[in-house]
Design brief:
This protein has about 550 residues and is an alpha/beta fold. The chain folds into two domains: about 290 residues, HUPs (Rossmann fold, 3-Layer(aba) Sandwich), CATH 3.40.50; about 160 residues, Valyl/Leucyl/Isoleucyl-tRNA synthetase, editing domain (Isoleucyl-tRNA Synthetase, domain 2, Alpha-Beta Complex), CATH 3.90.740.10. It has 17 helices and 23 strands. The strands form eight sheets. Strands 6-5-14-16 form a four-stranded antiparallel sheet. It is elongated.
Length: about 550
């Protein structure tokens, strides 16, 4: 309110004071003043006697926007970094974004679809240019939201997983891993998304219980198998039994006719089979099941692919051209007509893998892909925690970490996308190959691999690529290893374990962070994780608009 002129001191200006504190009138201007004054800027050369303290922000997807989980995560980091800053430490809190390969490509492809186009209409080069354009105009909205939250990051160090410096780091570590025999190309069974049309790593597949049907099929008088995916029998190349199962010992080495196809397939003995489960007979489809793939390798079985990349049946016969989910009941009906169906259990609840990005049911598929040989890298990541060089908080989360790194499969790192770091391998006219480092040129006329790297490959370099690696920069010497990694426990496998593996490898055994601080999920009133796909997201900016950033942050921190 404005004081009457008789009550104001001589020369005093008219001042309108709100009846209560309005954070929006203060916080934005105050934050900009802090940034302009350089209060958040780190300087590796400043006061070498001062202790160092550094945090890399978990890079949010360029397609994302701030949600309550980000707000909690950033509030914890900001509390730690501001405290150390006030204690006289040289602090670096490094912001940035992830290019989010599948998610970002999907966003831009949806935009093109509105124009009646596909990425193939543009071609690869023009499509990638379109994605960069989208990133410049619409991507990274979350960085502006971070300012609203008051994050005291050093904006001069903002990084992006596909900027030039990060691209050089990716090429460097790929080349080193390749030369050390830790990256290889091979035909393996992988997780395939028929919608995104790309391979997925194990951790990009989310399993959920779904109702299906368990069908028992009589292959012969002696052989009955059970399956929830009847359509895959079209690709069977064997039936497996346990070598010590007396019921079937006399059949091992013989053949049985595969129903509906007329093909004859082997009966093999394999210890993978559980003789106590079902009939003790297992159908073997090496091209469409990971366990069957391994049985096939052990017994040199042929591998028959019966579906194309979109999940459409390609096996010659009456089912050709049907979608996999159309083929399933059609195959069962045909078997029933022949009197082959022994038993049907419906509904039958079982775990089904879904693409993390689009929720499409994943299809196991034999494919030629690039892999990281993880065994030595994962062992080093486990040892760093076991011997105390890296601490996990809360300590009970260590069991989850070890369960992953101690049992990790080779990591499929190639993706059939156009947006991402392209595999730096070129092929010659006679099938020769050449892996080029960042400062190497491939032979003239050779063709580069069309696949790109898994998004998590580049984000695994984050703790050191953001500090200038592969160069021995002052930042790298001053701020690596980083002091603490703060993140939700849900990406312990996706990101944390991968940073541990690559950090220890690239930095000659020096861990990427001293402490892993895992916090819980922000959930709704039903205990469900907040997610756009669930429609239960609360936008922290709504709270900031109503109550201010300080009150929002305090509430989240106290709740945690």
């Amino acid at each position: 309110m404005t004081q009457p002129s008789s009550e104001r001191g001589q020369g005093a200006a008219d001042v309108d004071l709100p009846t209560q504190y309005q954070p929006a009138n203060v916080e934005g201007r105050l934050y900009e003043r802090w940034v302009s004054a350089g209060y958040f800027a780190a300087d590796a050369s400043r006061d070498p006697s001062a202790p160092s303290y550094s945090i890399v922000i978990p890079p949010p997807n360029v397609t994302g926007s701030l949600h309550m989980g980000h707000a909690l995560d950033h509030s914890i980091q900001d509390t730690l970094i501001r405290r150390r800053r006030m204690q006289g430490y040289e602090t670096a809190w490094i912001p940035g974004m992830d290019h989010a390969g599948i998610a970002t490509q999907n966003v831009v492809e949806r935009e093109l679809a509105k124009e009646g186009k596909s990425r193939h209409d543009l071609g690869r080069e023009a499509f990638v240019e379109r994605v960069w354009q989208w990133k410049a105009e619409s991507g990274g909205r979350i960085l502006g939201q971070m300012k609203r939250l008051g994050d005291s990051v050093d904006w001069s160090r903002e990084a992006f997983t596909m900027d030039d410096d990060r691209a050089r780091a990716v090429r460097t570590i790929f080349k080193r891993l390749f030369d050390d025999g830790l990256i290889y190309r091979a035909e393996r069974i992988i997780n395939w998304c028929p919608r995104c049309l790309t391979a997925l790593s194990d951790i990009e597949v989310e399993h959920a219980d779904r109702e299906g049907e368990l069908v028992s099929i009589r292959y012969s008088d002696d052989i009955v198998v059970a399956t929830t995916r009847a359509e895959t029998m079209l690709g069977d190349t064997a039936v497996a039994v346990h070598p010590e199962d007396d019921r079937y010992k006399h059949l091992v080495g013989t053949e049985v006719e595969l129903p509906l196809t007329g093909r004859r397939i082997k009966i093999v003995a394999d210890e993978h089979v559980d003789p106590e489960f079902g009939t003790g007979c297992v159908k073997v489809t090496p091209a469409h099941d990971p366990n069957d793939f391994e049985i096939g390798r052990r017994h040199a079985l042929p591998s028959i692919t019966i579906m194309d990349e979109r999940g459409v049946i390609t096996a010659h016969g009456p089912f050709e051209g049907l979608d996999r989910f159309e083929a399933r009941p059609a195959v069962v009906a045909a078997l029933r007509e022949e009197g082959r169906i022994v038993k049907e259990v419906r509904p039958y609840e079982h775990a089904v893998g879904h693409c993390q990005r689009c929720a499409t049911v994943v299809e196991p598929r034999v494919s030629l892909q690039w892999f990281v040989k993880v065994e030595p890298l994962a062992k080093a990541a486990g040892d760093a925690v076991r011997d105390g060089r890296v601490e996990i908080h809360p300590p009970e989360m260590g069991a989850r970490y070890f369960a992953w790194v101690d049992n990790m499969h080779d990591w499929c790192i190639s993706r059939q996308l156009w947006w991402g770091h392209r595999i730096p391998v070129w092929y010659g006219p006679e099938g020769e190959s050449f892996c080029a480092g960042p400062d190497e040129e491939p032979p003239a006329g050779w063709t580069q691999d069309t696949d790109v790297l898994d998004t998590w490959f580049s984000s695994a370099l984050w703790p050191f690529s953001t500090l200038g690696w592969p160069d021995g920069t002052p930042d790298l010497k001053r701020f690596y290893p980083t002091s603490v990694l703060v993140t939700g426990y849900d990406i312990l496998f996706f990101w944390v374990a991968r940073m541990m593996m690559f950090g220890l490898y690239a930095m000659d055994g020096v861990e990427p962070f001293k402490t892993i601080a895992l916090h819980g999920m922000v959930r709704d009133q039903h205990g469900k994780k907040m997610s756009k796909s669930f429609g239960n997201v609360v936008d922290p900016l709504d709270w900031i608009d109503r109550y201010g950033a300080d009150a929002t942050r305090f509430t989240l921190l106290r709740g945690a």
